[in-house]
Design goal:
Layout: H1 8-17, E1 21-24, E2 27-31, E3 34-38, E4 40-43, E5 54-59, H2 67-88, E6 92-99, H3 100-104, H4 110-118, E7 123-127, E8 132-137
Parallel strand pairs: 5-6, 6-7
Antiparallel strand pairs: 1-4, 2-3, 4-5, 7-8
Length: about 140
């Protein structure tokens, strides 16, 4: 199983505060005899604002030496997990959780805007200090 991201507990706490129930930690996916692990699986209880919606969340810290490298890695994982989910759990939407400084940084630059648009990237932007979700980008 992969190592947890430094913001793992922060994102879990922020999702719970936002009304989500964490169902899988990590979310195990199997396809063609291979296993991958998305950081979290969560669902919104029936009757709540997002009414039974299921999500998968891949958490990215963007703390390496190169935010461009982090973006490339995130995009690769996103495409892999998205493809598998579309085949085995099409009702579950994939989100990438990123800290607010990454959203205000590389994701607000032309290359980040392009990636969001072309990859149809869904983001959860979180405040790593206040442990809350700042914005959902769908």
């Amino acid at each position: 199983m992969p190592q947890r991201d430094i913001y793992h507990d922060t994102v879990v706490e922020a999702l719970v505060i936002d009304g989500w129930k964490i169902t899988d930690d990590p979310l195990w996916l199997s396809y063609g005899g291979r296993n991958v692990y998305v950081d979290l699986g969560a669902e919104m209880p029936i009757g709540a604002e997002k009414n039974g919606q299921k999500i998968a969340v891949e958490i990215k810290s963007f703390v390496s030496v190169s935010d461009l490298y982090d973006l490339e890695l995130s995009l690769g994982q996103h495409e892999l997990y998205k493809g598998i989910l579309e085949e085995i759990e099409p009702e579950r939407q994939l989100f990438v959780a990123i800290p607010e400084f990454a959203y205000d940084g590389i994701f607000s630059e032309p290359i980040g805007v392009l990636v969001i648009k072309r990859a149809n990237l869904k983001l959860i932007v979180f405040d790593e200090n206040q442990k809350r979700i700042v914005k959902w980008i769908t």
